[in-house]
Design a protein that fits this description.
Keywords (chains A, B): Hydrolase
CATH class of chain A: Alpha Beta
Number of domains of chain A: 1
Mean pLDDT of chain A: 96
Oligomer: homodimer
Largest interface: A-B, 47 and 47 residues
GO molecular function (chains A, B): UDPsulfoquinovose synthase activity
Largest sheet of chain A: 7 strands, parallel
Radius of gyration of chain A: 20 Å
Helix content of chain A: 25-40%
CATH superfamily of chain A: NAD(P)-binding Rossmann-like Domain
Enzyme class (chains A, B): hydrolase
Protein name (chains A, B): dTDP-glucose 46-dehydratase protein
Number of strands of chain A: 14
EC number (chains A, B): 3.13.1.1
Structural class of chain A: alpha/beta
Strand order of the largest sheet of chain A: 3-2-1-4-5-8-12
Chain lengths: 386, 386
């Protein structure tokens, strides 16, 4: 299979590229290195050292000769993406080239506009290129469980659900009630993609992904293969951030009551799920939505898990409650379907405790990289600042 | 009241400006003249002659001394809009500065990107400026009944509806299933505005407006006061297009079966409704959705109404079926709520037949302007062209 991966240089992009190449597939990677730049802007860096892009390209070209190519460029440049799609003619596109941080989008007007423009217009350019050159290709798009939000107080369906209203029944999209400008950009994308499937007969999988954590996949076996691991407030996801705090003796920062419940997924399982979806594409014209996570947890429970696993490694981990800078409910009903991937064969690789142990072990090897950035762990980017 | 009207130079913008000034309110108009440029691009012009912007400004400054101001600029220029909002400090903003044509957005990739970028980013910039400088102002935003789409086969609620799912009840946004890139840009706007109300406590009215038609409002009494009247395939709405075809002996072009049912509203009533909403703002933090139309009609029925009214004026009007260039159902269930405006006092000014008669009379005075552009009446912009 020929797979185009815009956003190849990111957390999931790099791990997915390694995995797909090791399966014998051909990968063409794209990136504009915005993740590296945006983490720089947060005054942070990856906790695990990663190769420069030049060295990554060298490494992959040597390890997988003839199977890997890379182009530097931006999805906002419609000619660039059109040219690559035409030349590479992919069987599948895994679109990971979005600004992926909710807090980053909430910093100020400029970061909001940057996020919505990058994500919405970039995805539109990609859709048009697919329609023009490879209308049968399978587009796999990373959305987020956060598109649904946490407000309705209903069980969360997997994309669509049947309802009755004034005596008539219909299957409609499950409502989207996102909680940040970033999450809304993903909703806009989902809507545009759903329409492209209907209009042009494209086939797309829209992944409502839970929060990803972890350092290891089967293909990450040495430092050259590390994928980035962010722990700053914008780009570090919650378990990853807790683990970075744990190894440096910084208290785990729980926002408010910590009852925020979300779906979670280890990196190795994110790669597994995306790969399962690539092997089981939807039919022409189908807009398929999957809820991609393993288990749901409350944030405070996770902090306690990290504390407990940390203790087995001799770490003295404390938990500190911080005033919640986000506008969100700190305790709420949450029950989300996630059956489609299980039916396609997904089983989790490790328990969350096993995964946390691996993370802590990996991070302890590079503790000084986190310690050098200790001051940026909690900055309190406010959701509703005036 | 001090009212800011981005998009003042357009079809509704000009008529609303005249009306609000004649009520004694203060109006600050903004425009980048994209409507004039985009109709030029369609090789068309307004059927009724309208003043240049310089003459419009002169006219209003003389007729309403000290009550009118105007700035040329673009909502994509965040500094421009921020500066105007800060200086004018409006009590209400009626945001009409969007690319308003579905067919225009469907021409090609460039027109899609232009539409979504202009509408989504322009609205975001406006929201940020309101939040920063006048968080208590009332934002009135023009959306469209087309955001709901015509697919679900349910009655259409007015913004939100209560549903039950697996034993739990919740009030959720009525699903949006738009049918063009333009309509989706309006959905993205609605979602962003709903979030801004929740996040910042803004108060906004999102108008799901039906299709507007007509030449006359109470304040349009001479040629200097004409608002633009478009009849090309992109910017001419269906009744207006039919009337222009009728006065020039061009057959009325009905797409396919003509069973497409939509809500309609005369221009004079659009102005009436917006003014009612301005006088009855929502409370702080409220995101209010109103369905703004008078009656719903099928497209073929409307063609027959224009034919019948035309006959009373001695016009020989024929109806021609054209292959539908749009991807839409040509016959479907349609029943949409529209109670909120009635409860606030809205009553229609004239019947659709009376309005059509006025339109035909006005257009007959300027028949030669339409005849000179007869060749652009039907170009068949395809919804799903490859």
């Amino acid at each position: 299979m020929k797979i185009l991966i815009p956003g190849m240089d990111g957390y999931i992009g790099w791990a997915l590229t390694l995995h797909q190449l090791s399966l014998g597939n051909e990968v063409c990677g794209l990136d504009n290195f915005s993740r590296r730049k945006n983490v720089d802007e947060m005054n942070s860096h990856s906790a695990l050292p990663i190769l420069s892009i030049e060295k990554r390209i060298d490494y992959l070209e040597k390890k997988f000769p003839g199977k890997f190519s890379f182009y530097e460029g931006d999805l906002l440049d419609s000619h660039f993406i059109d040219d690559v799609v035409k030349r590479f003619s992919p069987d599948a596109v895994v679109h990971l080239a979005e600004q992926p941080s909710a807090p980053f989008s909430m910093i100020d007007q400029e970061h909001n506009i940057y996020t919505q423009q990058n994500n919405v217009i970039g995805t539109l350019n990609l859709l048009h290129s697919i329609q023009r050159h490879v209308p049968n290709t399978h587009l796999v798009k990373l959305g987020t469980m956060g598109e649904y939000g946490y407000d309705p107080g209903l069980e969360i369906a997997e994309g669509f659900f049947e309802i009755e209203f004034r005596g008539k029944k219909a299957t409609i999209p499950y409502p989207k009630l996102a909680g940040s400008w970033y999450h809304w950009s993903k909703v806009h994308d989902s809507n545009n993609i759903m329409f492209a499937c209907k209009l042009w007969g494209l086939r797309c999988t829209d992944i409502m992904q839970g929060i990803v954590y972890g350092t290891r996949t089967h293909e990450i076996t040495n430092e050259n293969e590390f994928t980035r691991y962010d722990f700053d407030e914008a780009f570090g996801t919650v378990i990853n951030r807790f683990c970075a705090q744990a190894v440096t003796g910084y208290p785990l920062t729980v926002y408010g009551l910590g009852g925020q419940t979300r779906g979670f997924l280890a990196l190795v399982d994110s790669i597994q799920c995306i790969s399962i979806l690539l092997e089981n594409p939807p039919h022409d014209g189908e807009y398929r939505v999957v809820n991609q996570f393993d288990q749901q947890y409350g944030v405070r429970d996770l902090a306690e898990k990290v504390q407990k696993v940390g203790k087995t490694l001799g770490l003295d981990v404390t938990i500190q409650t911080k005033e919640n800078p986000r506008k969100e409910m700190e305790k709420h009903f949450y029950q989300a379907d996630h059956e489609k991937l299980k039916k396609l064969g997904f089983e989790n690789t490790r328990s969350v405790e096993e995964e946390i142990k691996l993370i802590l072990e990996d991070l302890l090897e590079h503790k000084e990289r986190i310690e050098s950035k200790k001051d940026i762990m909690f900055k309190g980017i406010k959701w509703n600042k005036k």
